[in-house]
Amino acid sequence: MLTEKERLNQVFRHEKPDRPPCICPGGMMNMITTELMDTCGAVWPQAHTDAGMMAQLALANYEQGCFENVGVPFCMTVEAEALGAQVSMGSKAVEPHVAQYVIDSVAEWRKLKPLNVNEGRAKVVLDAIRILKSKNLSVPIIGNITGPVSTAGSVLEPVVFYKELRKRNQEAHEFMGFVTEQILNFARAQIEAGADVIAISDPSGTGEILGPRFFQEFAVTYLNQLLDGLQSEKMGTIVHICGQMRSVYEQVNQIHSDALSFDSIVPMKKARENLGGRILMGNVSTYALEFGSPKQIEKMTKNCAADGSDILSPACGLGTKSPLKNVQAILQTLKKDEVLANA
Question: Which CA distances in Å does 50 have to 23, 120, 121, 126?
C-alpha cells in the first residue's frame, strides 16, 4: 500500500497512483480552522510565532483526517514582514495581514532589507519544518512561499505597483529581481530544513489583473526564475494562480512548476482541455467547504477528479469557520471510492 508521500511523488513523476492524493499546502492555501485549533490546543495568533505550536497545528491537520500532508506557514505575510513591512498577527479566526507598506515606489526598492532566514518568523517556519522532519512522517512536508508579484504587492501599495509596471518598467524589473532573489533564498532554506515540496501562491499575479502581456512579463518570468533556482533534489513544486485563466492559458503553460493549481472559478475540465498533460490540482470550492454539506463536498470532489484533477485540494485557503466534517469529506470521498474500486 502506498504511503501518502509515495502517492504524491507518483503524481509528480507523471505516474498513475491508486487514487488521487488529497492535500492542502498551507501558505495562502491555509488549511487551519478554529475547530481544528480546538482539537489540538494550538491556536492562532500564537502559532504564527512559535515553531512548536506551528508544527503541532500542521500535524493536527493530518491526524484529524483532513489532508495527506503537513505544511507551514499559515499565511502570506512572512516574506513581506522580513522585507520590512508591518504585519498584524490577526486573531484566532483571522489570518495575519500587512498593516503598513515599506516603500512608496518601485524606484525605492533599495530601501528594502534582505530577507534573513535566521531571524523572525522566517526562522520560526524553518524550525517548524525541522520539527516535522524529525518525526519521520509518511506524509509530505510542504513548504510555502508567497509568489514574486504578491510579495511585491505586500511591500508596496498594489495599485501603485501595478501602475509602475508600465511607468517605471526598468525599475519595476529591478525591484522584482530583488524580491525574487529574497524569496528564493527562503524557499531553498525550507528545502534544506526538510520540506519535500515547495508550493508558491501568487494570487496578485493574475491574468485578470495584469493582462496577458504583463502576466507574461512579470508573473511568468519571475515565477520561473524562482522555480529554476530551486534545488534539483526537491520532490515537486506547485504554483497556485487565482482568477480566470481563459486569457492566459498559453502563458500559464509556460510556468515551470510540476503542478498547477487554480481556484474554483476555473472549470477543471477547461483547464485540462487547455493544459494537456500538465499536472493539475484543485479545486473544491472553499465557499462550499465553509457553508455547504459533506454530501455537496463529496459530489464536488468526484466532479473534480472526473474532470481531470490529478491532486484533489481546496480551491483556495479554507475559511477558518469551515466545519471539520466538511473539510474531512474530500479525503473520505477519495478513500471510499478507492475501497469501492478495489472491492
Answer: 23, 10, 9, 11
Angle among Cα 77, 104, 224 to the nearest 5 degrees reads: 55
Per-residue pLDDT reduced to its tens digit, 270-318: 999 999 999 999 999 999 999 999 999 999 999 999 999 999 999 999 9
**Under DSSP, is residue 26 helix (H, G, I), strand (E, B) or coil?**
strand
Pairing of strands 259-262, 236-241: parallel
The per-residue pLDDT for range 72-114, each reduced to its tens digit, is: 999 999 999 999 999 999 999 999 999 999 999 999 999 999 9
Judge whether 23 and 311 are in contact, CB under 8 Å. yes
Task: Name the phi and psi angles at 282, rounded to 5.
Answer: 135, -150
Contact partners, residue 173, CB within 8 Å, separation at least 6? none
In the chain, what's the furthest Cα-to-Cα distance? 63
Quick check: pTM over 0.90?
yes
Query: In 282-294, which positions are buried (b, 16+ CB within 10 angstroms) versus exposed (e)?
Result: bbbbbebbbebeb
Instruction: Pull the grid cell for residue 49.
Output: 510565532
Q: How many CB atoms lie under 10 A from the CB of residue 316?
A: 26
What is the rounded distance in angstroms from the CA atom of residue 187 to the CA atom of residue 227?
9
The Cα–Cα gap between 331 and 13 comes to 22
Chain center to CA of 27: 5
CA–CA dist 258, 72 (Å, integer): 19
